[in-house]
């Protein structure tokens, strides 16, 4: 093992225990680790955003790095000067907006930063409106438009049943359920759940009843997703324990 | 649409790469203030400043520029032995919090909470050898065990609820976007 | 008694933390044996490997990243261990960029000695991990195993290997040398020259693609290890016989370790994970008992 | 009564509108004769024979007894008469499990031939398509003589190329009838290479490859979009080559074709109609509310509690912690969270309670400062505002969680809001907040994190409620109108569409399963 790796393990172990000590209570050890974590991660993103966003998209994309011989591919400026359209030339506008953003640093003209902010919020609103409508609304509608009974599955049951009976087994409960009740549950659950979200009518009478069924569906969803993730969360911690006991202390392999 | 979306997403990336200067400077400003005014815990603010500067200087000047993320660079060393264990440990704390949250939250206080509890309980039991053991104690035949009930909950009841939530989200987003585009909702810019 | 339940309800959560910590870490040290029932899909994989004759060549495709390490890494380790003990040669590739690196990590993990290694013609290639020793067995890079790294193209890589292996993977990943220089590659020209494919998969591209292309088109048997989330999706291929065995999640890994006769992290973690799970379930039960015990009292008081 | 009529007519008319707006997939140019006969001059045969290849009929397999043979018919013109030039009996050796081949050795170099295959079956005579014209060509000799059991690699046919519809250009779609050798599970096939040129005569350059198999099951074709450096407006020609074992067989050359950008997505007609209805409905109710009409909005428990939660912090003399998620301003959830921050900040200003907003994105910091400042101004308390109320920690998910956790433990806020987009840190934050006894109100549209907030917080805004919160808290008529609009134009429409089409699908399920697929496809977005 190289020395830097050995030291590395000790440092890593130090920070691992430091963060975990928070579980007992807030303490100076945790405070130190937290402070380092905030600093190191902020710096990590600071460097990454430059090398992964600013440099390739702005400087390489426009051709600024090419101009200075720091990059060997031409960018939008060279393309446009050569009479060829390159959509990346619009990044000049982003450069302007980015600089407007930095005007924040000068309090008297800080309001200029509202412009780039508005551009981002506005374009986000426009894009999300269309994409979410299609991906969440329409595609869910498509998946809800299903027959009440899945005849293919119901017909298939007989075959599955004889195959399993030959091995002395029963048809699994979930397959039965899926064939006869699966679609109905999906339809009822989706529609009543939607009624729960209905804001502009008081939830009473039939509507109230449906909304109540909807809440139960939501609760089952929450409970089930919670239960489902417990296992994987445990495996994360097991990974850390192996680091401490194995990689660092060498107590287990 | 796609090109436009790409362009806007690039713009966002570029603007945010500028904006992180504001955030980073703010973090430094607050930390330096803490130290200079000798506020409570000022010592830890030094740790923040030092670690920030350390990784930034190493990342920009001592890690091969564009190849800063490659294996074996100094940046990678900081990433591997400081950032990554911190991050992984924070993530691993979830194992504890999942346990304490389920102890406290999953109580049969009322009908809704009971349903929540039962769904979580069945799914949890159904996904461990413990569930198979319980099933065999109850003489449940193969195919009619707790794990099969878990499948029903996960594949039908859970999916139905998820769908209702997703449809609602789509409607909420369309409505909020529209309010913003029309300028009715201006609170995001501070205006009323 | 009432007081006890009331206290239980407002129990300090640190007690829960300690219990979970112990439930997870004690089994790691104690190496508790729990009897793991080997399910048929794991047995099928083991049997398929057992039928291979000595010297058979296995393609190991590691299609995952560190995110799935707790579940898939033990499968890589026990798989390699089995191959080494049974004189099976293996060729590592990856359809995910990080996969072949995970394989290196697994080899490092099971290797007992790391040494330099001299190629037959006297050309020294020093890397440090060329010789891998596992118990009485020693394997050499380029002769008994090789790592060809990652290749872009998802399922197209599989398709390409179908007609020409060299076209898909021209060089090895440790030295960047043409694969023809390594004796393990002699006679391996296309996918159908392999005797078995061992695929560890965490998503796309993965087991689904291997079955579709390698099994259906080129008739090479595929055995797979999958994450617990992924496994149900490829389950149907077991019934049709397109998949020669499946290790599902940590449990599948533990079952395989039992068959291979090597108690690795999956076996140990299985106990930890199950124990922690049982304790969470117990906590919920205790919480509810305490809740009902005190609620009954309170409502009486109310009367 | 009027309203009921309106609803009923909506339920009846809407599905028809949608049906009309629905534009089915383009008509296929690919033909499907029963045998799919392909004929070519035999490769590697210097004698100039011609080989026919067709898919075997149903029943022509190992168990076949009933139908004796295929008749091979040839003519020198596409019209009748065809002469019988040979037969292939069902018990003769076959090329591949699903195909039949015949070698016409009587063809002479010179004339063009047309071929077809026919077979007398129990249902009558079935004839294949007519294939031609084909000319006998003396092919350069191969290494070994070709026998009937040797497999000849046949090319893909009927290649068609067109601009990829409904995209933003830079892509051309190829569609071809797969090679007869491209059979599922066949070892004898290695996929296709795609070749492209800017002129019909070449040179052609290999621009891609793909696996075998049919990609559009219903139409029985393989499709592939070529997006490799395709320039809009340039004419391209393509051919596709089947490959196996070093051999290749190329299709017809198709083209010219140009790619271009489509501004409107024709296949998204349904989407446009439904989105149009939703937007119209929202706009209608916004105006309706502006006109002063009363609107009912049901109570949302999590939002009713906001007042109480802010009040509690005031009483206890502690601060309010507001966490706008860990995503940036390019996420609608963050924006929705910030609109709520505006309302909460106003209350905090009115109550003179300290507000604390740690953020994990710089842009969010800038936006949140604007919002909080404005809110304090509106509440008439600009003197209470200070930029340091909103501060940046780190962009990092867990780094941020560590910082906020520490902050919670030290400052012990009385009230914590989590409004925005959250990931795995949700429970880390909410459990810590819970342990210090704070009132917690969460709101997110991340389905995976909702369970954790529900478990650990006092109140949780679920999905759509997060987006409704700003309107609800402001009690402004215009904003409340939009809520009513999304109910009517979204949920009611969803409900009516779902009911009508579920009934149709259920009826169809007892008779014709193809109809279900058609109904479902109405709403597909692609």
How would you describe the overall organization of this protein?
The complex is a heterotetramer of chains A (253), B (192), C (303) and D (526). By secondary structure, chain A is mainly alpha-helical. Chain A has a domain at 148-253. Helices cover 75% and strands 0% of the residues of chain A. Chain A has helices at 3-20, 28-62, 64-67, 76-81, 91-102, 114-144, 151-166, 173-196, 205-248. In chain A, helix 5 packs across helix 6, helix 7 (151-166) runs antiparallel to helix 8 (173-196) and helix 8 packs across helix 9. The longest helix of chain A is centred in the C-terminal third of the chain and has 44 residues, at 205-248. The mean pLDDT of chain A is 88. Chain B has a domain at 106-192. Chain B has helices spanning 2-36, 42-61, 74-105, 111-126, 129-137, 146-182. Chain B is extended. Chain B starts with a helix and ends in a 10-residue tail after the last helix. Chain C has 303 residues and is an alpha/beta fold. Chain C has two domains: 1-31 and 266-303; 36-262, Rossmann fold (3-Layer(aba) Sandwich). Helix content of chain C is 49%, strand content 15%. Chain C has twelve helices and ten strands. In chain C, the strands form three sheets. Chain C has a six-stranded parallel sheet with strand order 7-2-1-8-9-10, with helices on both faces. In chain C, strands 3-4 form a two-stranded antiparallel ribbon. Chain C has a two-stranded antiparallel sheet with strand order 5-6. In chain C, strand 1, helix 4 and strand 2 form a beta-alpha-beta unit. Chain C is elongated and about 75 Å long. Chain C starts with a helix and ends with a helix. Residues 115-129 and 299-303 of chain C have low confidence and may be disordered. Helix content of chain D is 35%, strand content 23%. In chain D, the strands form five sheets. Chain D has a six-stranded parallel sheet with strand order 19-18-17-20-21-22, sandwiched between helices. In chain D, strands 3, 4, 6, 7 and 8 form a five-stranded antiparallel sheet that branches. In chain D, helix 1 (2-21) crosses helix 10. Mean pLDDT of chain D is 82; it is low at 24-29. The interface between A and B is large, with 128 and 117 residues.
């Amino acid at each position: 093992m190289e020395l830097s790796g050995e030291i590395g393990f000790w440092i890593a172990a130090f920070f691992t225990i430091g963060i975990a000590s928070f579980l007992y209570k807030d303490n100076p050890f945790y405070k130190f680790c937290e402070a380092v974590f905030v600093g190191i991660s902020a710096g990590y993103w600071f460097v990454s955003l430059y090398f992964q966003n600013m440099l390739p998209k702005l400087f390489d994309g426009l051709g600024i790095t090419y101009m200075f011989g720091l990059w060997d591919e031409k960018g939008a400026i060279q393309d446009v000067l050569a009479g060829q359209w390159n959509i990346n030339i619009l990044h000049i506008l982003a450069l302007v907006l980015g600089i407007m953003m930095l005007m924040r640093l000068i309090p008297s003209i800080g309001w200029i930063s509202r412009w780039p902010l508005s551009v981002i919020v506005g374009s986000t609103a426009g894009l999300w409106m269309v994409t979410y409508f299609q991906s969440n609304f329409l595609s869910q509608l498509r998946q809800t438009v299903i027959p009440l009974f899945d005849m293919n599955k119901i017909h298939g049951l007989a075959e599955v049943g004889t195959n399993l009976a030959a091995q002395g087994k029963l048809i699994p409960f979930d397959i039965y359920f899926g064939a006869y009740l699966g679609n109905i549950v999906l339809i009822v659950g989706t529609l009543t759940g939607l009624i729960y979200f209905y804001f502009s009518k008081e939830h009473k009478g039939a509507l109230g009843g449906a909304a109540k069924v909807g809440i139960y569906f939501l609760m089952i969803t929450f409970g089930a997703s919670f239960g489902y993730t417990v296992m994987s969360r445990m495996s994360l911690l097991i990974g850390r324990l192996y680091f401490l006991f194995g990689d660092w202390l060498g107590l287990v392999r | 649409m796609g090109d436009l979306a790409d362009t806007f997403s690039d713009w966002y990336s570029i603007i945010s790469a500028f904006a992180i200067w504001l955030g980073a400077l703010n973090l430094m400003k607050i930390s330096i203030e803490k130290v200079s005014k000798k506020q409570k815990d000022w010592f830890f603010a030094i740790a923040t400043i030092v670690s920030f500067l350390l990784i930034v200087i190493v990342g920009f000047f001592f890690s091969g520029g564009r190849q800063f993320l490659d294996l074996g660079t100094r940046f990678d060393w900081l990433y591997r032995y400081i950032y990554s264990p911190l991050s992984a440990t924070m993530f691993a704390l979830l194992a504890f919090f999942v346990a304490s949250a389920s102890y406290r939250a999953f109580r049969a206080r009322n009908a809704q909470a009971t349903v929540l509890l039962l769904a979580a309980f069945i799914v949890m039991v159904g996904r461990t050898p413990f569930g198979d053991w319980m099933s065999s104690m109850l003489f449940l035949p193969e195919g009619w065990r707790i794990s099969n009930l878990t499948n029903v909950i996960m594949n039908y009841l859970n999916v139905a609820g998820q769908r209702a939530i997703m449809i609602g989200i789509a409607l909420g987003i369309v409505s909020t976007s529209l309010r913003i585009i029309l300028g009715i909702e201006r609170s995001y810019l501070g205006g009323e | 008694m009432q007081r006890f339940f009331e206290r239980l309800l407002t129990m300090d959560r640190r007690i829960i933390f300690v219990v979970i910590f112990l439930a997870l870490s004690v089994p790691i040290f104690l190496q508790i044996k729990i009897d793991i029932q080997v399910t048929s899909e794991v047995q099928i994989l083991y049997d398929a490997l057992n039928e291979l004759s000595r010297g058979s060549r296995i393609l190991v495709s590691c299609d995952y990243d560190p995110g799935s390490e707790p579940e898939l890494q033990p499968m890589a380790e026990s798989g390699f261990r089995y191959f080494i003990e049974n004189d099976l040669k293996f060729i590592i590739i990856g359809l995910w960029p990080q996969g072949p690196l995970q394989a290196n990590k697994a080899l490092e993990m099971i290797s007992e000695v790391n040494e330099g290694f001299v190629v037959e013609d006297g050309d020294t290639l020093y890397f440090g991990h060329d010789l891998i020793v596992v118990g009485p067995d020693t394997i050499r890079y380029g002769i008994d195993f090789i790592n060809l790294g990652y290749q872009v193209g998802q399922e197209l890589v599989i398709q390409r290997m179908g007609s020409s292996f060299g076209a898909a993977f021209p060089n090895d990943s440790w030295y960047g040398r043409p694969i023809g220089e390594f004796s393990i590659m002699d006679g391996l020209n296309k996918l159908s020259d392999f005797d078995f494919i061992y695929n560890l998969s965490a998503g796309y591209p993965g087991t689904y693609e291997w079955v579709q292309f390698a099994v259906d088109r080129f008739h090479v048997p595929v055995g797979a290890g999958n994450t617990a989330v992924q496994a149900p999706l490829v389950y149907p291929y077991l019934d049709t016989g397109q998949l020669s065995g499946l290790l599902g999640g940590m449990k599948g890994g533990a079952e395989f370790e039992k068959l291979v006769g090597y108690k690795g992290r999956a076996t140990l973690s299985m106990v930890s994970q199950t124990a922690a799970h049982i304790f969470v379930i117990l906590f919920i039960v205790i919480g509810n008992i305490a809740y009902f015990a005190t609620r009954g009292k309170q409502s009486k008081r109310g009367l | 009564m009027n309203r009921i009529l309106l609803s009923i007519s909506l339920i009846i008319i809407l599905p028809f509108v949608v049906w009309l707006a629905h534009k089915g997939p383009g008509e296929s140019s690919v033909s499907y004769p029963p045998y799919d006969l392909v004929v070519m001059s035999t490769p590697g045969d210097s004698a100039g024979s011609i080989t026919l290849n067709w898919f075997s009929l149903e029943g022509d397999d190992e168990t076949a007894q009933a139908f004796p043979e295929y008749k091979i018919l040839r003519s020198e013109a596409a019209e009748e008469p065809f002469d019988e030039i040979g037969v292939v009996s069902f018990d003769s050796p076959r090329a591949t499990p699903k195909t039949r081949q015949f070698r016409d050795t009587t063809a002479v170099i010179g004339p063009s031939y047309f071929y077809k295959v026919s077979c007398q079956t129990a249902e009558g005579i079935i004839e294949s398509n007519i294939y031609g014209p084909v000319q006998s060509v003396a092919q350069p000799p191969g290494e070994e003589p070709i026998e009937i059991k040797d497999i000849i690699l046949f090319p893909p046919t009927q290649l068609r190329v067109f601009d990829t519809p409904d995209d933003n250009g830079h892509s051309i779609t190829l569609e071809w009838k797969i090679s007869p050798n491209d059979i599922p599970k066949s070892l004898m096939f290695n996929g296709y290479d795609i070749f492209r040129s800017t002129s019909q005569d070449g040179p052609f350059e290999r621009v891609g490859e793909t696996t075998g198999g049919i990609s559009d099951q219903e139409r029985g074709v393989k499709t592939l979009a070529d997006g490799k450096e395709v320039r809009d407006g340039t004419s391209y020609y393509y051919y596709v080559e089947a490959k196996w074992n070093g051999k290749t067989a190329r299709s017809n050359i198709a083209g010219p074709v140009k790619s271009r950008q489509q501004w409107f997505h024709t296949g998204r007609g349904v989407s446009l109609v439904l989105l149009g209805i939703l937007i119209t409905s929202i706009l209608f109710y916004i105006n309706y509310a502006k006109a002063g009409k009363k609107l009912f909005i049901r109570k949302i428990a999590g939002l009713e509690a906001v007042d109480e939660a802010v009040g509690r912090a005031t009483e206890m003399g502690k601060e309010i912690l507001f966490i706008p998620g860990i995503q940036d301003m390019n996420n609608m959830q963050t924006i929705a969270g910030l609109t709520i921050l505006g309302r909460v900040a106003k209350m905090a200003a009115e109550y003179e309670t300290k507000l604390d907003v740690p953020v994990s994105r710089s842009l969010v910091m800038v936006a949140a400062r604007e919002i909080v400042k404005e809110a304090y101004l509106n509440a008439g308390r600009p003197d209470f505002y200070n930029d340091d109320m909103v501060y940046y920690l780190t962009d990092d998910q867990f780094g941020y969680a560590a910082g906020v956790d520490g902050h919670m433990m030290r400052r012990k806020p009385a009230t914590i809001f989590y409004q925005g987009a959250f990931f795995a840190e949700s429970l880390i934050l909410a459990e810590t907040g819970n342990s210090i006894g704070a009132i917690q109100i969460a709101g997110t549209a991340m389905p995976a994190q909702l369970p954790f907030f529900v478990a650990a917080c006092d109140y949780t805004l679920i999905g759509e409620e997060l987006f409704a919160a700003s309107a609800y808290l402001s009690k402004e008529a215009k904003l409340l109108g939009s809520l009513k609009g999304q109910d009517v134009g979204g949920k009611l429409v969803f409900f009516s569409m779902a009911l009508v089409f579920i009934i149709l699908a259920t009826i169809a399920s007892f008779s014709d399963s193809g109809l279900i697929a058609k109904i479902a496809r109405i709403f597909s977005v692609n």
